[in-house]
Fold this sequence. Notes:
By secondary structure, the protein is mainly α. It has helices at residues 2-5, 9-12, 19-28, 33-67, 71-83, 86-102, 112-121.
Amino acid sequence: MLAHFSVLLNLVTGFLGVVVPLVIYLIYKDRSRYLAYQSLQAFVFQLGTWVGGGALVGLAWAVTGILSTVLVGLLCIPFACVLSFLPLAALVYGVIGGLRCAEGQDFQYWLVGDWLRGVLTA
């Protein structure tokens, strides 16, 4: 649960939310497969959405800014605005994961969960 809720740290620090699930994974990887799976899943999800999503949003705004000198750039602004909500969606998804784990349910992030389950069982 704490690994999933650590996404809230990104609101305050901007990047430390990724560290918490990694530390939880390293501490509990040999003690509990469930904790190892949930924490590693939260780590990969946050790494992908906050780092990858942040880079994508930054790139979208950079391209929009550069192309704004031409009419094409003005057409890119709505796409850049929509992409700007990606970190907020990741935040909500992480909180949902934390709540599901708090209820004792197994939670899988879309795309990340199945891939990591295969990596951890191999």
